[in-house]
Specification:
three-stranded antiparallel β-sheet; 48% helix; 379 residues; alpha+beta; binds protoporphyrin IX containing FE; Cyt_P450_B; Cytochrome p450
Length: 379
């Protein structure tokens, strides 16, 4: 259908400002087409309501396309199948068995441990001169939190940090090379569970060894998402000093602010693509069975139909309906932990460094992730 706007992922203007590119498409209609060299075309939903409807519609299914295509040794293959590659009853069972370990209550109980990690990382920053908060703080923090959660011994953590850095940089060949190490490491941890989480997953929860290892390897992947987001959030807060001032003076706004930041500068631009299980009429566009469909988190989160005055950053806004953690059955399992981690990290930074300023903002042109190349700051 010719009326469907196309978004060229190779266009530098799209990479430089995906919010404008997707937003322009959104105002032409709820469906657009993503195109680009070396990239199979994909349908994308750009409006909030339509994106949510797709994410809860069983005709759009996640499957073996997410991790299975990775080139890894045969013994790793069974562990690649995470809950993100399953649907229906199989997926519901995995969610049921793991959800208690990721409940909001658990995340709150875990808060003091996150606070200790944040304090340690901030204490370790060089005393003077510019510092890159991306590599020195935002990247190591999520992996430290996952290590605490899963019970990785102190001595093993340096190599897990290397995995984390590889994961944060994307899914290229370096990533595939890191996968066997992550999976073998996850198997070792599961064989000798030394954390509440692993004792729960290997004990009462009733997961198989394969499912538990897949869960740990997925936590390493998915649990890195805060890294790029934290850097975006610091940059955003410093670019809006009036909003940072609100949070310094009235810290009760932090939970709102975390959601508003997710809405405003979330790092995941698109959901994982789903495939249609049958031919679907997608708001007037015929999508053939098996074609990929994604949702533009960035466009939906700035949809004026869902958020008043969406281009205003307001930490007091009730922005909880954002799609930064997706929606429906695959809604981020770690959302409660992510929220606590982000709040603890950002509030500590604002409290500790009242004169913080960003020296340079340079983004990596990455069609899937809105991210900074570095976050050099002066305190
Ligand atoms: C700011 C931080 C985070 C963001 C923005 C984020 C975002 C997301 C999104 C968008 C999805 C759904 C993907 C899709 O269906 O297309 C997802 C799923 C998931 N996330 Fe997160 N995430 C974050 C942090 C975390 C953390 C810290 C953990 C672990 C502790 C985690 C664990 C997971 C898991 C296990 C899934 C798969 C859920 C399923 O398939 O049912 N995430 N996340």
């Amino acid at each position: 259908m010719s009326a469907v706007p196309e978004i060229d992922l190779a266009d530098p203007a799209v990479a430089a400002d995906p919010f404008t590119a997707y937003g322009t498409a959104r105002e032409q209609g709820p469906v657009a087409k993503l195109v680009g060299p070396g990239f199979a075309p994909m349908w994308v939903l750009t409006r909030h309501a339509e994106a949510r409807a797709m994410l809860t519609d069983g005709r759009f299914a996640l499957g073996e396309g997410t991790y299975q295509p990775l080139d890894v040794p045969e013994h790793c293959r069974p562990y690649l199948r995470t809950m993100q590659e399953t649907e229906g009853e199989q997926h519901a069972r995995l969610r049921r068995l793991t959800a208690p370990a990721f409940a909001a209550r658990r995340a709150l109980d875990f808060r003091p441990r996150i606070e200790r990690v944040v304090t340690r990382l901030l204490d370790a920053l060089p005393a003077q001169g510019p510092v890159d908060l991306l590599t020195e703080f935002a990247q190591p923090l999520p992996m430290e939190v996952i290590c605490e959660l899963v019970g990785v011994p102190e001595a093993d953590r340096p190599r897990w940090h290397e995995y984390g850095t590889t994961v944060v940089r994307g899914t290229g060949s370096g990533f595939a090379t890191a996968v066997p190490g992550i999976i073998d490491g996850a198997r070792d941890l599961v064989a000798r569970p030394d954390s509440d989480l692993l004792r729960h997953l290997t004990g009462d929860a009733g997961l198989t060894e394969q499912e538990t290892v897949a869960m740990v390897w997925q936590l390493v992947l998915a649990g890195q998402t805060p890294a790029n987001f934290l850097a975006n959030a610091v940059e955003t807060l410093l670019a809006h000093p009036d909003q940072a001032a609100v949070l310094r003076a009235e810290p009760q706004w932090w939970p709102n602010a975390v959601d508003e930041l997710m809405r405003w500068c979330g790092s995941q631009l698109l959901t994982i693509p789903r495939r249609t299980t049958e031919d679907v009429d997608l708001h007037g566009v015929l999508v053939r069975a098996g074609e990929p469909v994604t949702a533009s988190i960035a466009a939906a989160n700035h949809d004026p139909r869902a958020f008043d005055d969406p281009d205003r950053f307001d930490v007091r806004r009730a922005a909880g309906a954002h799609l930064g953690f997706a929606y429906g059955p695959h809604f981020c399992l770690g959302a409660s932990f992510a929220r606590v981690q982000v709040e603890v990290a950002l509030s500590a930074i604002l409290d500790r460094f009242p004169g913080l300023r960003v020296l340079e903002v340079q983004r990596v042109p990455d069609p899937g992730t809105w991210r900074l190349a570095a976050l050099p700051v002066l305190r």
